[in-house]
Amino acid sequence: MSEAVIAQADFNSRHWRYPVAGRIRPGADAHFEMLTRLLAETYNPYKPAVLDWPKLEPETLARITSLPIWDIAVQTEIKAAARIRAFARTVRSDKLRAALNHMADEEARHRDVLSRLVAAYDIPMQPEAPYEPPRDTEWGFMVTGYSECVDSFFAYGLFEMARQSGFFPPELVDTFEPVVQEEGRHILFFTNWIAWHKATMPLWRRPYFLLKVAAVWGFLIWERIGIARGVDGLEAGDANFTVNGTKALADEMDPAKLIDICLAEDKKRMAGYDERLLRPTTMPRLARLARRFMRPKQVLKHA
Ligand SMILES: [Fe+2]
Ligand SMILES: [Fe+2]
């Protein structure tokens, strides 16, 4: 593939507009059209098999292979693909099912990218555990969707910090950049699916659904507290590599700065998509709230 073709594909994955003018209300038919077209029309057709794995300096290689994130990252992608596919099977609309299967294919591709990285750098891995998605397929999809909302938000910032500090060499940053953006599209899709689903369900179902959303968040917090306490990462489930990645980078990190970068990156990564698509807001809101109680380290040092 030529450089120009790759650059165009990258641009298309970051910029998209639904070609119908006017206001679009969440839950409207046009909103459904928009959300079910988003992933297919912003698809970046990179092939994991042709990715270049740069030869790393021994020090960089040791730093990367010792990051405690690879097992969880692979497991997370396997689970995500299985849960999304299981949910897709229970959905009646052909368009929504196709969009979900598209998302599941992208998760499978992430796993492929990671497997190739692991093989290229000889990263020792635990055997992959088989995974059976939960019986309540909607629950499974929502756990994956909200997990991605949390993890992508931190991944944006960690990735950018790793790039700025040279923790990741630039060639690896380039390889992973489309994956990070892809997760951004996923949470955009998920956020709009939640809004559409809520708006179109019968009124009597809404309280139950809101409870379910709260239960998913409760579950995610419980899982992440488990990981932070040092519970074995794989057993803790969905708490993604960003939690462990945060720990690995913690020494070099200023939490206030990290949040600022996460917020800036979130804005930048979402900026190219149709403004009528709702944005994921929970993490940015929580982060802005937490940020009010923090001061950057440098400021303290010079004070
Ligand atoms: Fe993924
Ligand atoms: Fe994803």
In words, what does this structure look like?
The chain has 303 residues and is an all-alpha fold. It has one domain (3-16, 23-302): Ribonucleotide Reductase, subunit A, CATH 1.10.620. Helices cover 69% and strands 0% of the residues. It has 13 helices and no strands. It has helices at 3-14, 29-41, 58-65, 70-89, 94-120, 137-165, 170-200, 206-228, 233-236, 241-249, 255-270, 282-291, 297-302. Helix 6 (137-165) crosses helix 8 (206-228). It starts with a helix and ends with a helix. Residues 80, 107, 148, 183, 186 line the site of one fe (ii) ion.
Quickly describe the structure.
With 303 residues, the chain is mostly helical. It has helices spanning 3-14, 29-41, 58-65, 70-89, 94-120, 137-165, 170-200, 206-228, 233-236, 241-249, 255-270, 282-291, 297-302.
Which key phrases capture this entry?
binds fe (ii) ion; 303 residues; disordered C terminus; mainly alpha; 13 helices; Ribonucleotide Reductase, subunit A
List the helices and strands and how they pair.
Layout: H1 3-14, H2 29-41, H3 58-65, H4 70-89, H5 94-120, H6 137-165, H7 170-200, H8 206-228, H9 233-236, H10 241-249, H11 255-270, H12 282-291, H13 297-302
Helix pairs in contact: 2-5, 2-7, 4-5, 4-6, 6-7, 6-8, 6-10, 6-11, 11-12
Bound molecules: fe (ii) ion (2 copies).
One fe (ii) ion (FE2) binds next to helix 7.
Shape: globular
For the residues shown, what is the average pLDDT? Answer: 90
The percentage helix is 55-70%
The poorly predicted ranges are 231-236, 299-303
In total, the number of strands is 0
Helical region count?
13
Question: Architecture, according to CATH?
Answer: Orthogonal Bundle
Task: Please write the string of helix (H) and strand (E) elements.
Answer: HHHHHHHHHHHHH
Q: Give the helix/strand class.
A: mainly alpha
CATH third-level topology: Ribonucleotide Reductase, subunit A
How much of the sequence is in beta strands? under 5%
Cα gyration radius (Å): 19 Å
CATH top level? Mainly Alpha
Count of individual domains: 1
Ligand inventory: fe (ii) ion
Largest sheet: none
